[in-house]
Specification:
The complex is a heterodimer of chains A (250) and B (347). Chain A is an alpha/beta fold and 250 residues long. Chain A has a domain of 172 residues: Rossmann fold, CATH 3.40.50. In chain A, strands 6-7-8-3-9-10 form a six-stranded mixed sheet, sandwiched between helices. Chain A has a four-stranded antiparallel sheet with strand order 2-1-4-5, covered by helices on one side. Chain A starts with 6 loop residues before the first strand and ends with a helix. Chain B is built from 16 helices and four strands. Chain B has a two-stranded antiparallel sheet. Chain B has a two-stranded antiparallel ribbon with strand order 2-3. In chain B, helix 5 packs antiparallel against helix 11, helix 12 crosses helix 13 and helix 12 packs parallel to helix 15. The longest helix of chain B is centred in the C-terminal third of the chain and has 27 residues. The chains are: A alpha/beta (250), B mainly alpha (347). At the A-B interface, helix 2 and helix 3 of A face helix 9, helix 10, helix 11 and helix 16 of B.
Chain lengths: 250, 347
């Protein structure tokens, strides 16, 4: 099914080593428009390293990344964000001293005008409607004027994801969105994710919570020891002997 | 109707703009500002020339502290070279006026531009090093500038500096008289404050704060962290240079010791005590550094002990400085929080 869709991102043969440790050994996969691609694998298999190589936080030893057919390999994180790659990190990354509103405006501002023209624009850059829309979508209205640092972990997680969406990216990379989130907040994260995907947004999601990823992902890439073990639907992955062995070790 | 339904209805019936600072806080904030402005305007009529000088010194010092606050308090980049930039501003403007007969206002603009350019250059190490390491880089630069001022006496007058610096005139209206010069420095402080206020509430201000809170995240959101870091250093240094162009005609001489490392450390103290990352912080910090010692003169040589104890107590109990204490008061007594947040906080 997804083969007929437009390919948004092509990742080809990514290699990354840290000294003698080979974190990624020739990883390749595609992301299609409008899908949620899950990326799973045991701890230390190289998932976050892969995201960091794709998104410019780390420099891959070799391999290419193309966004809509354009080679974006080796570009800096800020350039990739402007090109349309949004992300969240494994550990929470919100701006503690700013309010929820300010966090979202900051997330949007790099995509409006130039660095110098921004100095002479109105403080909200005409983005307040977008901010309010996202705040409403993530049910953060009652916290809009609160400092992000004073929010609960789950609320910060929602804000973190919301920030990744402010620039209307072509793909959003989420690194463990369900990590450390309580059950009711987890349901919130899941429903927000599915609503946004329903509205046409594309996601690549690293996750350890199997139940979560099996419910939201259209396709899943399984990584083990720095290599792609298989790509398939939730059912295919769940019943694959190689995946079971990789996770359970037998 | 259950309690949670009541809460839900209350939340839904309230717009986003209903939360935040209460009206009482707004009145208190703007009322205090108006009272401060009126006080600063009328005070010269009640004090002598010496206190007018001290207040002028406060205004000039506050401008430089505003520069450091922009770098350190908002963008999170520590600098121990604020004294050096003040020296660059003071010497460049003075030498242009005295040796080349350049008009004071033009000399002021040139001195600020020179400070901005050198400040941006000093910002480059900040792209690679942080915290203590950055402090050492800037400390080294401060020493370098003072050595230059002291040793290159064919240009700078050496250890003796430059004497008999004249105060400028505006459209033929001399600013020599202390009251006039005080009002002049007050206007300059107002211009500097408005500039910083505008910048902080602009998207640049948010970018600076993002740089301080989490540079990795800022970059992943597309913010050009390199440009913003250099910009913070350039503007912060420019304000120090601006302050330097005013200190020279205020004290009517310049010499290298005025701008040595101790001065930069004093600026650091001002920003910490006043409240880093607060607009009012540098004004309060400069008050403690320049005006309070005058009030503690009765203590003679013990004044430094009183001052040190005061600073230690302040940092112990109000680590965010005096302005940070004001923020605590605001949050405790003047903040409207949504019912849901109150419920979560109580829980």
């Amino acid at each position: 099914m997804s083969q007929a869709r437009k390919k948004v991102l092509e990742v080809r043969d990514i290699h990354k080593s840290f000294g003698f440790v080979k974190a990624n050994r020739g990883i390749s996969f595609d992301v299609y428009e409008g899908e949620i691609l899950g990326v799973i694998g045991p701890n230390g298999c190289g998932k976050t390293t892969l995201f960091n190589c794709i998104l410019g936080q780390l420099k891959a030893d070799s391999g290419t990344v193309s966004l809509n057919g354009q080679d974006v390999t080796g570009q800096k994180p800020a350039q990739l964000a402007k090109a349309g790659l949004g992300r969240t990190f494994q550990l929470l990354q919100v701006f503690d001293s700013m309010t929820v509103e300010e966090n979202l405006l900051t997330a949007a501002q790099a995509h409006v005008g130039s660095i110098f023209s921004r100095l002479f624009m109105q403080p909200d850059l005409g983005k307040m409607d977008d901010v309010n829309r996202v705040i409403e979508a993530f049910r953060l209205g009652h916290l809009a004027k609160e400092d992000a640092g004073s929010l609960s972990y789950g609320q910060q997680k929602l804000l973190d994801i919301a920030m990744g969406l402010m620039s209307n990216p072509q793909i959003v990379f989420l690194d463990e969105p369900a990590g450390g989130v309580n059950l009711s907040m987890l349901a919130d994260v899941k429903s927000r994710l599915l609503e946004l995907n329903e509205a046409g947004m594309t996601f690549a999601v690293i996750e350890h919570n199997m139940e979560f990823i099996f419910e939201v992902a259209d396709r899943i890439v399984v990584i083990a020891e720095g290599e792609v073990l298989m790509v398939g639907t939730a059912d295919e992955v769940r019943n694959d002997p190689k995946v079971i062995e990789a996770y359970l070790g037998h | 109707m259950s309690q949670s339904e009541n809460l839900q209805q209350e939340i839904q019936g309230t717009s986003l703009s209903d939360y935040g600072d209460s009206a009482a806080w707004q009145y208190l904030k703007w009322g205090s500002l108006v009272a401060l402005i009126i006080f600063l305007i009328v005070i010269p009529h009640y004090v002598g020339a010496y206190y007018q000088f001290v207040l002028s010194l406060w205004a000039v010092t506050a401008i430089s502290a505003q520069g450091l606050n922009l770098m350190m308090g908002y963008a999170g980049k520590v600098s121990l070279a604020q004294g050096a930039f003040m020296g660059i501003g003071a010497y460049v403007s003075t030498l242009l006026v005295q040796n080349w007969g350049v008009n004071f206002w033009l000399a002021m603009i040139i001195a600020i531009i020179v400070s901005i350019i050198i400040g941006a250059a000093i910002g480059f190490p900040a792209l690679r090093v942080e915290g203590h390491y950055l402090a050492f880089v800037t400390l080294g630069f401060n020493e370098l500038v003072v050595l230059f001022l002291r040793n290159e006496d064919q240009w700078t007058g050496g250890p003796l500096g430059v004497l008999n610096i004249e105060r400028p005139s505006i459209f033929g209206y001399s600013l020599f008289e202390p009251t006039r010069f005080y009002y002049f420095t007050l206007v300059m402080l107002a211009i500097s404050s408005l500039l910083v206020w505008y910048m902080i509430r602009s998207p640049w201000g948010r970018a600076f704060k993002a740089l301080k809170d989490n540079p990795n995240r800022a970059e992943s959101l597309g913010l050009d962290t390199t440009s913003y870091t250099l910009m913070a250093f350039a503007i912060g240094s420019g304000l120090a240079g601006f302050s330097g162009t005013l200190i020279a005609p205020l004290v009517e001489f310049v010499e290298p010791n005025q701008f040595q490392l101790l001065k930069s450390l004093e600026y650091l103290l001002m920003v910490m005590v006043g409240g880093r990352g607060f607009l009012a912080g540098p004004l309060i910090g400069a008050f403690f550094a320049e005006v309070l010692p005058e009030w503690l003169r009765f203590a003679d040589e013990y004044y430094l002990i009183f001052f040190a104890i005061f600073v230690m107590l302040l940092i112990r109990f109000f680590p965010e400085g005096v302005a940070g204490f004001g923020k605590q008061i605001r949050r405790t007594f003047f903040r409207q929080t949504s019912p849901q947040v109150q419920g979560e906080q109580n829980a």
